[in-house]
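In the design runs reported in the main text, the only information available to the sequence generator was the tokenized backbone. The following block is the verbatim input for one such run; it is reproduced so that readers can re-run the procedure and compare outputs position by position.
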């Protein structure tokens, strides 16, 4: 299926942010990256804010689709609201670890930028609300274990996003397995 000009522009915008940061996002930069005209971008995104908001939706949507792919066949369907909390946690943990070894730095930059814009923050919050364990009550040990697994997963994602060091696949899998084990309330060995 042929990629739409809008999708082409959003992929190009993601590459611009990945390479040069959110502040470099402009019609000119995206048009040059996508091989489109500035007028073509304005047609789809009438302002830089509209482009940025669509980019937040595009990148967070990609992350959410990746998490859905992590759900085992037995736990299907991959709609988070139809999954038990353990299946959602495991999809979140595995979905937070990029298969290529390094998370998309555009995700990190967009998440950081979203903290300054409530509408963009709401886009990311919605994904977290559907997949990630919520802040627990102090007395709920099971919820504390799940939240601890979320924090460990987020920490692994941040580590990989900020460093050039790549984890060996076997080590990464061992870390993911331990995080999931912790989320189940099982002690690691």
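Verbatim output:
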């Amino acid at each position: 299926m042929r990629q739409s000009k809008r999708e082409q522009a959003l992929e190009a915008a993601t590459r611009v942010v990945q390479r040069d940061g959110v502040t470099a996002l402009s019609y000119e930069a995206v048009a040059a990256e996508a091989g489109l005209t500035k007028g073509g971008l304005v047609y789809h995104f009438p302002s830089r804010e509209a482009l940025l908001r669509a980019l937040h939706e595009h990148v967070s949507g990609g992350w959410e689709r990746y998490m859905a792919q992590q759900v085992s066949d037995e736990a299907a369907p991959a709609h988070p609201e139809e999954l038990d909390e353990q299946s959602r946690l495991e999809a979140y943990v595995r979905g937070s670890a990029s298969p290529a070894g390094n998370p998309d730095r555009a995700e990190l930059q967009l998440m950081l930028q979203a903290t300054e814009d409530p509408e963009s923050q709401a886009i990311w919050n919605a994904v977290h609300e559907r997949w990630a364990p919520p802040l627990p009550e102090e007395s709920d040990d099971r919820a504390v274990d799940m939240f601890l697994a979320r924090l460990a997963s987020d920490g692994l994602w941040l580590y990989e996003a900020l460093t050039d060091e790549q984890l060996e696949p076997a080590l990464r899998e061992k870390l993911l397995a331990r995080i999931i084990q912790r989320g189940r309330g099982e002690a690691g060995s």
